[in-house]
Design goal:
Two copies of one chain form a homodimer.
Chain A: E1 2-6, H1 20-34, E2 38-43, E3 52-55, H2 71-84, E4 91-94, E5 112-114, H3 125-129, E6 136-139, E7 152-156, E8 178-181, H4 190-200, E9 204-207, H5 215-222, E10 231-233, H6 239-247, E11 251-254, H7 264-271, E12 276-279, H8 284-287, E13 294-297, H9 300-310, H10 315-325, H11 328-346, H12 350-356
Helix pairs in contact in A: 1-11, 4-9
Protein name (chains A, B): Sugar transferase
Pfam family, one (chains A, B): Glyco_transf_4
Domain Glycosyltransferase subfamily 4-like N-terminal (chains A, B): 18-132
């Protein structure tokens, strides 16, 4: 198939630093190329890909030092370029969150598919979607669909990672610690993680960024609980420190309090064989195999029992479950299967006809 | 003429508090209604207008307490509604800054006109505009066009205010003070205003908001210079305090250091008969009649001499110049004339034909 991917322009693909969406696009595009598809990526010019890159802006918006940038104008220009070249592709896969591409492709929604990578409980989304109700959508979890249940959902594809990206650490340090990785925001509930660790008597290591919006919460609620001994704060860690941090952890704590549509760090932990104790929120029930790769809990008491259980899991089985369910190849195959179904629906017999030529 | 106006959804029309764009839209829409046109306003549902309101969102985005809002989805839904009803209007006038409407109307640019209300020196604007080069644009000053000089500019219409909105104060307090009104940002250069006042020996009164982004600048640079006697800081003032503040000032200082495309406060001062001393930046040369309504200067020394001169101006002549050049009625007539030209160009003889029926 001739497949176009259209990435947001906020970060390059892959992102230079943080950017879950752009990382997933990288793995998916590379996976589709490996499967033999002809893939074109519309993205910022500082992107690097095994597909054919169409650089639609000199560099990604966020790290561009130019003081005045228009994200709307940048994305409009990109979408116009995609529209002009639409005939070159069998299917055009959009990774934009808020429907900016719909007006451009309203005469050909069946040639497109959209993966929104974020939460969907924005007030304005259902009203806007109802105006373009035919656009096929793919969710990154079943839970993600809930606030936009009436959309034309054609599949769910869980994220995946390349199997060689992260590997279990053969000889881990013992005894381990509990790990918390992510932004130190109210939504992520680091306070719960600290209480769980304190009451299990295990050390907690926190590797996380404090964003501008989260400073007041951090200084008021989290910082007073960091003693440097039983609760240690490492600041933000780079990609190269992640293996050590997640791979040596006894378990990852993910006690979130928001409708997380996927939770990439959860499968990253699994890739290292590290089990996860997560709060019953968002997509956690879909991502975690209860009793195999982790536990999903509803309370601090539940979490404490879960830590006791999860730290005794066979880490080889955690890794095996990861390989089976969350590989980039599986993700690419899942998406390719949906593209095929969409093409069959759009023009039945089309692919057979093409074979006859 | 049947005229549609399409307002941004960030603030209601008129705005509940601050919002220059939405105030101008109010005056323009009311002015066109008074001229006898059939006017429809697409705006948030908390707007109030003499035109026919099409409420496309229950309330304006900025003050909506709902935590998650999508400005893109909100504006897309509005633009889809405008597009569906396009045949009801002779001309559709957009007040959006960054071209979000272009894809919707690319088959009928000649039926639209766009007034961008902000600065245009954003990196992404020229590249995006080149993809829709036929959309007619109206600038709010000649200077505003400069970063997008190649656009299809069909006219410049300076802003205007209703003549009865602000009136000179008959018996002003003497001796007067110098006034500074606006955000306390680096761009507005309150530090220059303070130095000018200090060196002229006149009192400076500052009425201004300190935005989130400007806090560090305010505390570091401006606050140490406020002594409460020769430099007085009043905080943000409401619409009801503006008459007293501007009307009693000997002159308004506007020593900006950015390409201000218009500068609404400058004509507000003139409405009270208050002359303006402004820096040679942005559209100031177009707005100020040198030696009549104020002076445009290049240096602190120049500003000091200008204050000496301007405070001796005949304030009746300042008001007279305001009435001649910056009334809302003049603004509405100017826009209506451009609409007429656009319609004649789009379909010559059309209006004559309509008269014959």
């Amino acid at each position: 198939m001739r497949i176009a991917h259209v990435a947001p322009l906020f970060e390059s693909v892959p992102p230079r630093y943080y950017g879950g969406t752009e990382r997933i696009i990288t793995y998916l595009v590379d996976g589709l190329v490996e499967l033999g598809h002809e893939v074109t990526l519309f993205a910022s010019g500082d992107s690097k890909t095994t597909a054919t890159l169409v650089p639609v802006r000199d560099q990604a918006l966020r790290l561009d030092p130019y003081p005045l940038k228009s994200q709307i104008a940048a994305h409009l220009a990109m979408l116009d370029e995609v529209r002009r070249r639409a005939d070159e592709f069998d299917i055009i896969h959009f990774h934009l969150s808020h429907f900016l591409h719909f007006p451009f492709f309203q005469d050909m929604p069946e040639r497109t598919v959209t993966t929104p990578h974020g939460r969907l409980d924005y007030k304005d989304l259902p009203g806007a979607y109802r105006r373009w109700p035919h656009f096929p959508m793919i969710s990154i979890s079943h839970r993600q669909r809930q606030p936009l249940a009436e959309a034309n959902w054609v599949g769910t594809v869980h994220h995946g990672l390349p199997l060689d990206l992260y590997k279990p650490i053969p000889r881990r340090q013992e005894p381990g610690y509990l790990a918390f990785l992510g932004r130190l925001s109210r939504d992520k509930r680091p306070d719960r993680a600290i209480e769980i660790a304190r009451r299990t008597g295990m050390k907690l290591r926190i590797a996380a960024k404090v964003g501008e919006d989260d400073r007041a919460y951090f200084h008021g609620t989290v910082e007073p609980l960091i003693d440097g001994v039983s609760v240690e704060y490492l600041g933000e860690i780079g990609e190269d420190q992640k293996a050590d941090f997640l791979g040596n952890a006894a378990a990852l704590l993910f006690p979130i309090d928001w409708p997380e549509p996927f939770g990439l760090v959860v499968i990253e932990a699994m890739a290292f064989g590290t089990p996860v104790v997560a709060w019953n929120s968002g997509a956690m029930h879909e991502i975690i195999d209860e009793g195999v790769t982790g536990h999903v809990v509803d309370s601090i008491d539940g979490a404490i029992a879960a830590v006791g259980s999860a730290t005794k899991f066979d880490r080889n089985l955690v890794r095996a479950a990861f390989e089976k369910r969350f590989s980039a190849t599986r993700m690419a195959r899942d998406y390719a299967a949906i593209y095929g179904q969409l093409l069959d629906t759009a023009s039945p017999g089309r692919r057979i006809g093409a074979m006859a030529v």
